[in-house]
Write a structure and sequence with these properties.
Blueprint: H1 10-21, E1 40-44, E2 47-50, E3 55-58, H2 73-83, H3 94-106, E4 112-116, H4 119-134, E5 138-142, H5 159-163, H6 174-178, E6 180-183, H7 188-198, E7 202-207, H8 223-233, E8 237-241, H9 253-257, E9 264-267, E10 278-282, H10 284-287, H11 306-347, E11 353-357, E12 360-364, H12 373-376, H13 381-393, E13 396-397, E14 406-407, H14 414-434
Parallel strand pairs: 3-13, 5-6, 5-7, 7-8, 8-9
Antiparallel strand pairs: 1-2, 2-3, 4-10, 9-10, 11-12, 12-14
Helix pairs in contact: 2-11, 3-11, 7-8, 11-14, 13-14
Bound molecules: pyridoxal-5'-phosphate.
C-alpha cells in the first residue's frame, strides 16, 4: 500500500476531496464504507486495483453485472466497434431488435419488452404498466427486497437502506407509501391474509425471487409456486424483479431455475455486460399498454443506446451459446466456496450461516438460519465489518455490507478460489479469537 508524503493514502486524500462535493463522498450509498473506500485505478478479469497500488480478488463485481469479470475482451471489442459508428442516434437500430429477440428467447415469459437505462427505471415502469393494465392502485412488495430507488418501492428496501439505518426513505409522500403493502418474505400466510382483504385492489406483486439485497435469502420450498397461484387467482400481476437473478441463476433466470412463469419481469445488471441498460417486459397483452402502442407513458433519451446494446448483445450471445458450460462451472465454484465457508465456520465454532445459490453466496453472523429480513437484521454487523476488513487486508474484496451478496464470475480462476478460501478461513479464525 503506497502512502503519500502527507502520510495518507491516495484513496484517503481522494475520499476527503470527494466528501466535499459528493454526499458521503460517493455516487451510490453502499460504496461508502468505513474507514474509507479504496479508489479504483483499473480492473481486469477477477482483479480490481486501487490507486494505492493494491490488487484485490473481486467478489463485489460491481454488485452483480460482471458475469465475465472486469474488462471482458468480447464486450470491449463489441463496444469499440460500435464507437466507430456513433454513440447515440435517437432513432432505432437493427441491434436493438436482435437484442430484444435474444432476451425473449432466453426468457420466454418476456414476450414483449422495452429497454431502459437502469433497474430503477425498469421496476418503476413495470409497476406503472401493471397499474394501467389492471386499473388497480396498490402493490405488494416484501421486506428486504430492493427494487431500485423510486417512491413506489423504497419501503423496507434492504441493501444500502438497511446498512445506513434508513430502511424507509424520507421524502416519500405518505399517500404513495399507503399504496405499497409490505409483507414478510417466505410467509405465505401473510400474503394469503392481505389478498383475502384487499386482493382485488392490488395491481401487482413485485418480488426478488431470490433476495440478493439483504445479503442472500432463498425462497423456501414451494413458496414461489404458492405466490404464483395466489396472484393468478386474484388477477394480480406477478412481477419477478430479476435484475440480479436474470442470466445469473440460469440463462433464463430464477424463473427458469424454479420453473415459474411470472406475468412481468425486470432485468438489468448482467443484461448490459457492464454498461448501463435494463429492461421490463412480459406478456404481450400487458406490454401492449405501453406507449405509443398503448396508453401507459414511458420514454427515455438514452434508452436502447447503441453502446449499451452492443455490450449487452454480445454478453447474451456468449451466454446463449455457452450456457451449458458456463452455468455448471459457476455453480461448481459456488458449491466449492460454500462448502469451504461452512467448514471454516464449523472448525472455528462461529455462530454464522452460509446462504448460497448458483454463483451467489453470503455469510451471516447470525445464530439462526436467515430466511427473511427480520432474521437477517439479527446478524452481528460488527463481526461482519471485522471479517470484511480482514479479507481486504488479504487481498479479497467482498461487498462492504452484511446486506449485500458476493458474486462469482467466469474470470475467477481455481487459484483465485484457493486463495479466497484460505483468506476466508484466516478471517474467520481470527474472528473467533477476538469474539
Ligand atoms: C440493482 C437492483 C435494482 C436497481 O437497479 P439500478 O440499475 O441500480 O437502478 C433493482 N432491483 C434489484 C433486484 C436490484 O438488485
Amino acid at each position: 500500500m503506497v502512502r503519500l508524503a502527507s502520510g495518507k493514502t491516495r484513496s484517503l486524500e481522494l475520499f476527503e476531496r470527494a466528501k466535499k462535493i459528493l454526499p458521503g463522498g460517493v455516487n451510490s450509498p453502499v460504496r461508502a464504507f468505513e474507514p474509507y473506500p479504496f479508489f479504483v485505478e483499473k480492473a481486469s478479469g477477477s482483479k480490481i486495483c486501487s490507486v494505492d497500488g493494491a490488487s484485490y480478488i473481486d467478489y463485489c463485481m460491481a454488485y452483480g453485472p460482471l458475469i465475465f469479470g472486469h474488462s471482458s475482451e468480447e464486450v470491449l471489442d463489441a463496444v469499440k466497434e460500435q464507437l466507430t459508428k456513433g454513440t447515440l442516434y435517437g432513432t432505432p437500430t437493427e441491434k436493438e431488435v436482435e437484442f430484444a429477440e435474444l432476451i425473449s428467447k432466453s426468457i420466454p415469459s418476456v414476450e414483449m419488452l422495452r429497454l431502459v437505462n437502469s433497474g430503477t427505471e425498469a421496476t418503476m415502469h413495470a409497476i406503472r404498466v401493471a397499474r394501467g393494465f389492471t386499473g388497480r392502485k396498490k402493490i405488494v412488495k416484501f421486506e428486504g427486497c430492493f427494487h431500485g430507488s423510486h417512491d413506489y418501492v423504497l419501503v423496507k428496501a434492504g441493501s444500502g437502506a438497511i446498512t445506513f439505518g434508513a430502511p424507509t426513505s424520507l421524502g416519500i409522500p405518505e399517500e404513495t407509501g399507503r399504496n405499497t403493502i409490505v409483507l414478510p418474505y417466505n410467509d405465505i400466510r401473510a400474503l394469503e391474509e392481505i389478498v383475502e382483504h384487499e386482493g382485488y385492489d392490488i395491481a401487482a406483486l413485485i418480488v426478488e425471487p431470490v433476495i440478493g439485497n439483504t445479503g442472500l435469502i432463498l425462497p423456501e420450498e414451494g413458496y414461489l409456486n404458492k405466490m404464483r397461484k395466489i396472484t393468478s387467482d386474484h388477477g394480480i400481476l406477478l412481477i419477478f424483479d430479476e435484475i440480479i437473478t436474470g442470466f445469473r441463476l440460469a440463462l433464463g433466470g430464477a424463473q427458469e431455475y424454479y420453473d415459474i412463469k411470472p406475468d412481468m419481469t425486470t432485468l438489468g445488471k448482467i443484461l448490459g455486460g457492464g454498461f448501463p441498460i435494463a429492461a421490463f417486459g412480459g406478456r404481450r397483452e400487458i406490454m401492449q399498454y405501453v406507449s405509443p402502442l398503448g396508453k401507459v407513458y414511458q420514454a427515455g433519451t438514452f434508452s436502447g443506446n447503441p453502446i449499451s446494446v452492443a455490450a449487452g448483445y454480445v454478453t447474451l450471445q456468449i451466454l446463449d451459446k455457452n450456457w451449458n458450460k458456463i452455468y455448471p462451472k459457476l455453480e461448481k465454484a459456488g458449491e466449492e466456496v460454500k462448502k469451504a465457508l461452512m467448514d471454516s465456520v464449523s472448525d472455528h465454532h462461529i455462530e454464522a450461516q452460509v446462504n448460497s445459490i448458483a454463483s451467489m453466496f453470503q455469510i451471516f453472523f447470525a445464530p439462526h438460519p436467515v430466511t427473511d429480513y427480520t432474521k437477517a437484521k439479527l446478524s452481528d454487523i460488527r463481526m461482519f465489518h471485522s471479517y470484511f476488513q480482514k479479507l481486504l487486508r488479504c487481498g479479497i474484496f467482498v461487498p462492504p455490507s452484511q446486506f449485500e451478496t458476493c458474486f462469482l464470475s467466469t474470470a475467477h480462476t481455481e487459484e483465485d478460489l484457493e486463495n479466497t478460501i484460505n483468506a476466508f478461513d484466516n478471517a474467520l479464525c481470527n474472528i473467533s479469537k477476538v469474539g
